[in-house]
Amino acid sequence: MLTKTLEWRKANDVDRCLETPISAEHLRHVREIPAFYCGFGKTGHPVYLEHTAAIPWDTILANMTTDEFLVSQVQTLEWQASVVFPEASRRAGDAITQVINVWDLKGLTLSGFSSDVRALVKKASALAQDNYPEGLYAAYIINAPKIFSMVWAVVKQFLDAKTVAKVHIYGSGDKMWTKLMDRLGEGVTLRKEMVCCSKADIGKPEAEYGLQGAHGATQRWISDRIAGRESDFGSAPGVLRRESSTKDIFDIFFDASDDLCAPDLASFNQRSSSARLSSSQPVVESVSASKSKKCCC
């Protein structure tokens, strides 16, 4: 597997994928993905929260090709390896090269898990598993609806047994929250209202706490690096700086086989500089920072 991964990295120029941001048009869709890093678990591993069922898959599929989407995913994985893991290691005093994923399935429906979405998820899962096989420490699936058993029967076919063994499926409510926090520890910046809220309020608690979307943060870091600016999202060792003291927020930290075609990263990296983001363009989440509604837990 290592040989194939090295060949994939060389063929797709993955080592240089953080040198060119995605286009501004694609950024508008990628930064809508409600995924955030929420500090570090008691084992020292970074905690990645993704509201999987709230990802705007239809918009992404309508405006990005599969390769374009996968390129953005590879960039976030590479950003994680280059910035997030070193910071976690510095804090832990030991090498940290894995992440804890929390996948929130609130609002999941069969209609939202269409054949096109399944195909994209399958390719993204295979890409991560095949080329970043040891990157997952543990995964917790929360707010899983009854239909999830059907979805899981499909998804786990894409994963090897070692990965499946790392996945823990929880329900919802107070019991889920207690079990999750027992696993993660009280030191994480994950808060109950982030995973115990209505689907309409997903992302609002994160905005209140000042958390930045994972994929938008990756692109901001790339743009800052190109412009020679010190980035709030990755100037080691101060990777996770605190924001203004006037805000009650925590460390900025925004996180899954068939023979599949790899994304054309080589062609992507040869794009002209005109595709680069304007240095003045901010990367901000579109969610409102207004107070969250009553939690459902």
UniProtKB/TrEMBL annotation:
Gene3D superfamilies listed in its UniProt record: CRAL-TRIO lipid binding domain (3.40.525.10)
Superkingdom, taxonomy of origin: Eukaryota
CRAL-TRIO domain residues: 34-210
Subcellular localization: Cell membrane; Golgi apparatus membrane
Annotated membrane topology: Peripheral membrane protein
InterPro entries in the cross-refs: CRAL-TRIO_dom (IPR001251), CRAL-TRIO_dom_sf (IPR036865), PI/PC_transfer (IPR051026)
GO cellular component: Golgi membrane; plasma membrane
Family to which the UniProt record says this protein belongs: Belongs to the SFH family.
Protein name per its UniProtKB record: CRAL-TRIO domain-containing protein
Organism: Ostreococcus mediterraneus
